Amino acid sequence: MALSPPNALLCPSLPLLLVVLLHHLSMFHALTTNSFIYDDGFRPVNLTLTGESVITSSGVLQLTNRRGLWSVGHAFYHDPLQFKDPSDASNTTASFSTQFIFAIVSGIETLRGSGFTFAVAPSMLPNTTGGDYLGLVRNSSNGNFSNHVFAVEFDTVLGTWLRDINDNHVGVDINGVISDTSQTAAYCTDDGKNETIDLKSGKMIQAWVDYNANEKLLNVTLAPIPFSSKPIRPLISYSVDLYPVLLDFMYVGFTSGTSNSASDHYILAWSFTINGKSQDLDLSNLPKISKKEVPIWKSASFLPYTTAFTALFFIMLGIISYLVYRTRKLSDTVEVWEQDYPHRLPYREIFNATKGFSEKEVLGRGGFGSVYTGVLPSSRMQVAVKRVSHNGKQGLREFVSEVSSMGRLRHRNLVQLQGWCRRKEELLLVYEFMPNGSLDTFLFGEKERNLSWEERFKILNGIASGLLYLHEGWEQVVVHRDVKASNVLLDAQLNGKLGDFGLARLYEHGTDPQTTHIVGTVGYMAPELLITGKATASSDVFSFGAFLLEVACGRRPVEITRPSDEVLLMSWVFMCWKRGELLSVIDERLEMRYVKAEAELVLKLGVLCSQLKPEDRPNMRQVVQLLNGDVPLHEVPLENLIIEDDNDHDQLAVAYSSSDIHISRFCSSSQTEKSTDTSRK
User: Fold this and answer.
1) Residue 482: active-site member
2) Residue 146 has what DSSP assignment?
3) Highest mean pLDDT range out of 1-15, 161-175, 360-374?
4) Which letter, b or e, does each residue of 489-509 get, where b requires 16 or more Cβ atoms within 10 Å of its Cβ?
5) Are residues 223 and 75 in the same domain?
6) Which candidate, 266, 264, 262, 242, places its Cα nearest to that of 254?
7) 675: Cβ–Cβ under 8 A, 6 or more apart, which residues?
8) Is-contact 88 149, C-beta < 8 A?
9) Is 543 in contact with 526 (CB distance < 8 Å)?
10) How many other CB atoms sit within 10 Å of the CB of residue 156?
11) What are the distances in angstroms from CA 121 to CA 93, 238, 407, 417?
């Protein structure tokens, strides 16, 4: 048998080896790149340009121009950068710092373009919308949590429907172009005064964007060129946690969009660094913006046609406005005050999504009304639609105001509100769809599948994290007021998300909540609500304690059909704890398959969260630390615990005989102490 020469065997594999080698080199480059700078002109080889974006002959990055109407321009660094380390359990992103120099040149003051953004996105944002959406998102997906987009916008058009403060502002955008916070463009002078900057003046302006992941603080600073140095005081200093927004790998770059008018948006220099300070730009070596010829529509020969085109434009605009108004009038009535609240969806879209609120689309019913499933025609997103009845315009306005605020809550363990709509005496709330329904249906036999202990413990951790965000992680304190299994929904991976904010209330950090009506569910309400009527973060902790026992024991807090000593779940758990039979209360459907240390922790923590005095309960930060194993739970002196049955309201309370004993006695503040229980391994 003839043998092939050695070269004949090796040569065919060389191309494949080269391809594999190049692929690994490319991935290594993406993983190690954490800093770059362009201060002597841009080079196309390191940027990906789409839409109207070009690099001029002098090396200036031009995102959009005055000739491209209803267009989009994108320019992103060609490699994704790593913002999260999957092996890092600290739940923080990387810090980052960037600075760039830009100029916006408008042709006519009254017909300027919309502006541009510095963006951090999971992709290079194909299929986005121009105009007021700045090439950042589509109008149909604006504000969706699934966008995972962070941006700083430099906006030169007043979009009242997007809650813009004026036509010359800088805003912080998360998952859409409705800014979480914004300020009029300005800078701090050397003597400490604020001077306004006209973004569309055509002059060069320098911007700094710095995010400190440890402090969860974002700073945005502006200064005109030339200026002696970076101003000592930022224009925007905003507390925000980008961990839920950013993915492991993200692209950085710029976006812009035009509508029926346009501007030239230029980037002249740019530097970017992860986990460090961005490199300073060399202002002496900036590329020049080339002078353009006067467009034909601005020349003298075109002036005779201006009036005719302007008249035709306004006639068409009037016709379109009338048709839109008539369509809205036929499908829905929108009062002036309703335009101040975001996320309002057309009634016709929700009607079509639910197939005319068909009975076949009903997911469930309650005292509030019905919940329907549907698919929004504009975005093809599957949603759950709740129909809520209301009484009176004033009550509706207050409710919608709170709903609009909660629509800005963003946490992986909170059900995301996608929009709302009012139709006569009904309020329609549109939420993200949760395919596995409520936790209640798994715990109490409506689902054939039983949840394992690992799944239950993960859900408890998630809801605790969500409550901590509501109490401490947002600009206001949000008290849910109705934490229970039926208000916990499960996604496709059985992650728990807290939903149903119909009873929630908001108040400022450091202030007392206002007295309100006593609301909630029997068995979950803190006893002080009967006296003060004030729902607080501590009353949420009480409800969470009942929820902990509900999940671990697989039964509701109050069940009158049980023997007298087991009617109240809290009393039964505490009695078994005193007898040394604490684990006997664990849900029998688990068939003894659970982690002993975790089960004991959940049961004891459920009792401690349900103490009579609010000051003797742990706060949600302590609860999260205990559930995560960051601090151990010290032994609880059972002789100091007193069970009281509030017969007036069927509520269970646990009180200390001495008010000097607090939860700090039972959990250490040291972050270095860890539980050594081997049963979890």
Assistant:
1) yes
2) G
3) 161-175
4) bbeeebbbbbbbbbbbbbbee
5) yes
6) 266
7) 597, 629, 632
8) no
9) yes
10) 22
11) 14, 20, 21, 22
Classified as helix, coil or strand, 582 is helix
Residue 176 tokens read as: 């859409």
- By CB atoms closer than 10 A (0-12, 13-18, 19+), residue 593 is exposed
Q: 77 and 49 in contact (C-beta within 8 Å)?
A: no
What does each C-alpha distance from 84 to 148, 168, 274 come to in angstroms? 13, 34, 11
Structural domain includes residue 361:
yes
Number of domains in the chain: 3
Structural domain contains residue 300: no
Residue with tokens 């701090």: 188
The residue to which tokens 């995972």 are assigned: 148
Q: Which distant-in-sequence residues (6+ apart) come within 8 Å of 184 by Cβ?
A: 165, 166, 168, 169, 170, 196
Q: Which of 441, 445, 420, 416 is nearest to 430 (CA)?
A: 420
The answer on 450 and 487 residing in a single domain is: yes
Tokens of 350: 């929700």
Write down the catalytic residue from 155, 332, 482, 500.
Answer: 482
Picking from 175, 174, 213, the residue whose alpha carbon sits closest to that of residue 93 is 213
Give domain status of residue 305, yes or no. Answer: no
pTM comes to 0.51
User: 675: which DSSP letter?
Assistant: -
pLDDT of res. 504? 53
Strand duo 505-508 + 476-479: pairing: antiparallel
* Secondary structure class of 425 (helix, strand, coil): coil
The distance of Cα 418 from the centroid of its chain, to the nearest Å, equals 11
pLDDT digits (tens, 9 = 90+) for 162-209: 888 998 999 999 999 999 999 999 999 988 899 999 998 889 999 999
Query: Mean pLDDT, to the nearest integer, of 462-488?
Result: 90
Residue 228 pLDDT: 67
d(Cα 599, Cα 609) in Å, to the nearest integer?
Answer: 15
CA distance 647 to 567: 12
Q: Residue 90 falls within a domain, yes or no?
A: yes
Residue-range definition of the domain harbouring residue 41? 27-289
3-state secondary structure of 397: helix
Q: How confident is the model at residue 24 (pLDDT cuts 50, 70, 90)?
A: very low
Number of H helices, E strands in the chain: 12, 29
- Tokens (6 digits) for 22: 């190049």
Give the CATH number for residue 344: 3.30.200.20
Rg (CA), the chain: 29
Name beta bridge partners: 173.
151
Structural tokens at position 370: 């019905």
Q: What is the pLDDT of residues 273-290, one digit of tens each?
A: 999 999 999 888 899 887
- The per-residue pLDDT for 292 is 53
Say which CATH number the domain at 582 has. 1.10.510.10
Domain boundary among the residues 432, 461, 495 is at: 432
Place of tokens 């922790």: 601
User: CA 141, CA 380: separation in Å to the nearest integer?
Assistant: 10
pLDDT digits (tens, 9 = 90+) for 425-448: 778 888 889 999 889 999 987 677
Find out whether the peptide bond into 226 is cis, omega within 30 degrees of 0.
yes
